Amino acid sequence: MSLKPRSRVSQGRLWRRKKVKEDDEGNISRREMDFTKQTMTHSGSSASGLGEEAASDEFQKEVASKSSTLLIGRQEAETEVYADLIVKQTGSVDKALLFAITNVKLESKLQVVVNSLINRGANTSPTYNGLKSPLHYAVERNMKGIAVKLLENDAPPHARDKEGKLPLETAMNNQNDDMCALLLSHMPNSFVRSLFLESSTKPAEFSFHKLLRSGMMRTIQSVLDCMIESDPSSESIRVYYSILECDDDGRTPDHSHFNPESKSCLQIIANQENKSIAYHDAVRLLTQRKWKKYARRRFEFNAFLYLVSLFCLTIAAVMAVESTEPNSYNGAREIGRAVIEAITIVMIVITLLTEANQLLRHRFEYFHDTFNWFDLVSSILLICVVPLRFTANDAQWHVFAFGFLLWTMRIFKFAAVFRQTGAYAQILSRILAYDFVQFGVVFLVILLAFSVSFYLSLRGDMDLHVHNETSTFWGILFVGIRSLTEASPVLEYSGEDGYGTVSVILMVCFLFTCIVILLNILIAQMSDTYQKVQEDAQRGLEVNRAWIVARVELNSCLWGNHSYHRKTYYVEYEDIPDLKNVLSKWESPPLNEMNKYIRDIWDSLNNHKLSLLTVQQRLARQEITLRNIADQLQYLTNTSGNQITSVGRPAFYRSETEGHDSANKLPSVNSGDIKDDIIDIRGIITHDRVNEIVFGKNSCVSQTTQIPLAKLQTSGLS
């Protein structure tokens, strides 16, 4: 059973103290030695993956020697000794890298080991059993930090194992969004596009349709980023639309086996109403292209027909109410009403047939769209008015009233194409769906508490018949609703014609709660909703336009070829000369002040990206410099053939009184001077400084040990 991290660390410290004491006494039992090995294996050190060898005396002595020789901390020394040991065990640095990634459990410790092995020249793309690379194992173990380090050191993200499996496939199966996005960002754009498309030689390896439905947002964004790349020959941007236009199996519309019944990825994005994805440049450009090619003409035609039908329906309703005999058509005025009603009925029948066809095609998915409910229900209600009228049934007026209301609400479907009117439609829908629901629940609780209390109070004061509106429980409920909507009392509750004292107090408390508190809360809530929708108006506009394009494609004809537009206007890619200018013109109306601030933020973000790139390049150069310093220090240490005392020990050596020759005498070492000397080893050290380091008073090299200047120059110290 594994121990908690804090327990493991504390036990490791206790063991080290105990072992020092027992070594001094020279009495270590077999049982205590087994406990020692077990504790070291579960400790938090970098060498815990070696098991018994990590707990051996030789290992600990080597750590102490490395720490004193290189003047480094114990953890860093453990890392270096660990790396030396696994390189010795496996036979090469490349195999040691694979061994470390597959065996070290703690990712934080593994990162240090991997970094050490890479600095020693380990190849990041060797293969192991099943031709798996280190990146395969890092992805399998869900170690993002290790994967980042490998990819930064040129590990191929598109390398396959013996079964032809990519690291991306493992990350996809594990639903690891961050890992998938990381791998895709390091792959060539053309290779990523080929993974989601079927070619003549191989099927698609992944489905972008499934990826959209999985909700892995960062992975989706990475795939969309691969659809846009610069064209060096023409200084333009090339946008690839093939993935957004393909079917479930990755076949494009020009493929011989293209499935016309399968939805495109653009239609799925529009149906999900995901603003982050719909606002991506690739999706926006495809929506813009389809809108200009055919969707705008179809939308304008449908909007014209709807306005004509609304005009005719309004005139027919008004004239029918004013007519003494609605089912009689005598006289010029009534004949004109009959013609208008006939035109209206024809348009309503066409709308009903269109909705019925969509219902048969999409089935339950049809009801996911709110406007489909308005279209279907309003058409059915208005058709029902005809038989009710000719049977002289007065219910026709109520049916006509609700049908006309829903038919008028359909106008918001056409208003969504403009940013301002689309924002109004969104605000109205959000207020009705969210704000009023939350507010209504609170109000109903307060109304119920007031109504029952007020009803009981009236019974106690014998005031049930003072006003007819409050003589029943349901009447009191209605009075409470009227008081809220009218924001004022609806009856006289005080004075000679009023209620008793307790009833008046209850009424005042209710009116104060509803009119002063609840109404102001509702106004503040609606104001917050309005502000949020306005800030996100442009993104909402993109979703609405993509939704309109999708409806035009899905409902291209009543019966027949439903993929006509997708096949006719399909292009694999499009060259855009000025991407930012094209997208700016696509926004209608121009950006408001909030969007201008967002544009400034984008520009600032691009500047920060350039600065970050510069910092990364400088860090890479500094890392190379540090490697050279380490190599030079190791060369000096090996050449001297002597060991430097650790910082924790007293800085003295054998004196001349011990009978040794002065040639073999080593002076004391000052660690501060050595650190200064090490800092100076950066390729700018002078010859005099080298001689001072080697033969000076604080040198660890004896006078009899001569270092040729040629070797120093070769090692980069000159």
What would your notes on this structure say?
The protein is mainly alpha-helical and 718 residues long. Helices cover 65% and strands 2% of the residues. The chain has a three-stranded antiparallel beta sheet with strand order 1-2-3, covered by helices on one side. α18 (332-362) packs across α19 and α19 (370-390) runs antiparallel to α20 (395-409). The chain starts with a helix and ends with a helix.
Structural class: mainly alpha
Sheet having the most strands: 3 strands, antiparallel
CATH topology of the domain at 421-543: Helix Hairpins
Instruction: Indicate the overall shape.
Output: extended
The whole-number mean of residue pLDDT values reads 76
CATH class of the domain at 421-543: Mainly Alpha
What are the main properties of this structure?
718 residues, Helix Hairpins, 31 helices, 3 strands, 2% strand, disordered N terminus, disordered C terminus
Quick overview of this protein structure:
65% of the residues lie in helices and 2% in strands.
Which SSEs are present, and which pair or pack?
Blueprint: H1 5-25, H2 30-41, H3 57-70, H4 74-90, H5 93-103, H6 107-119, H7 134-140, H8 144-152, H9 167-173, H10 177-185, H11 189-195, H12 208-214, H13 217-225, E1 228-231, E2 236-240, H14 242-245, H15 265-272, H16 275-278, H17 281-322, H18 332-362, H19 370-390, H20 395-409, H21 411-415, H22 419-461, H23 473-486, H24 501-535, H25 537-554, H26 564-568, E3 573-576, H27 579-586, H28 593-640, H29 671-680, H30 687-695, H31 709-714
Antiparallel strand pairs: 1-2, 2-3
Helix pairs in contact: 3-4, 4-5, 4-6, 5-6, 7-8, 7-9, 8-10, 9-10, 10-13, 15-25, 17-18, 17-20, 17-25, 18-19, 19-20, 22-23, 22-24, 22-25
